[in-house]
Amino acid sequence: MASGEGSSAAMRAFGADFAEADCLMLAEVATVLKQQADAHEEALRAGTTSEGLKDTFLKTLEYAQRFNHITEMQSIMDTRTMLEQAGLEPVQLAAMANLMPRSVAEARSLIPSLTERACSDDVLEGLINRLQELQRM
């Protein structure tokens, strides 16, 4: 790892290439990739394409499905809405949904930008509890 690389991520400084990029939860990535894979499979059946999916695409889909904690579409939408309404920044939102911390201390440790100033302990604990409920749906 290059010098300062870890601190750049912790400070949410990802460079110009990502200045306009949206942060997605793994649940959203898995949904989009699955839709693309299904559309590709349909195109194969219809004969409009003969190419297989790229290995990188398939590995990314597998990763997103494996580490995705929220599978129901309504739960995915509820998760994003809840975290946005709590005032989390996009990177914090994605990190909370992807990492699914079990405690306030774990959340603050895994997401350094999630300071008490950014989100109180009570609010953060409520978010964690609701995330766990949505995960079980």
Helix content: 55-70%
CATH domain fold name of one domain: Growth Hormone, Chain: A
Strand content: under 5%
Number of helices: 7
Number of beta-strand segments: 0
Label the overall shape: elongated
CATH superfamily of one domain: RNA Polymerase II, Rpb4 subunit
Order of helices and strands: HHHHHHH
Termini separation comes to 38 Å
Low-confidence stretches: 1-7
Largest sheet: none
Radius of gyration: 17 Å
CATH class of one domain: Mainly Alpha
Can you walk through the features of this model?
GO terms for molecular function: nucleotide binding. One of its GO terms (cellular component) is nucleus. Belongs to the eukaryotic RPB4 RNA polymerase subunit family. Pfam families: RNA_pol_Rpb4. It is a single chain. This protein is mainly alpha-helical and 137 residues long. It has a domain at 73-136: Growth Hormone, Chain: A, CATH 1.20.1250. Helices cover 63% and strands 0% of the residues. It contains seven helices and no strands. The protein has helices at residues 5-10, 26-46, 55-67, 73-85, 90-99, 104-110, 121-136. Helix 2 crosses helix 3 and helix 4 (73-85) crosses helix 5 (90-99). The chain starts with a helix and ends with a helix.
Annotation keywords:
137 residues; mainly alpha; Growth Hormone, Chain: A; 63% helix; elongated; nucleotide binding
Briefly characterize the structure:
The protein has 137 residues and is mainly α. It is built from seven helices and no strands.
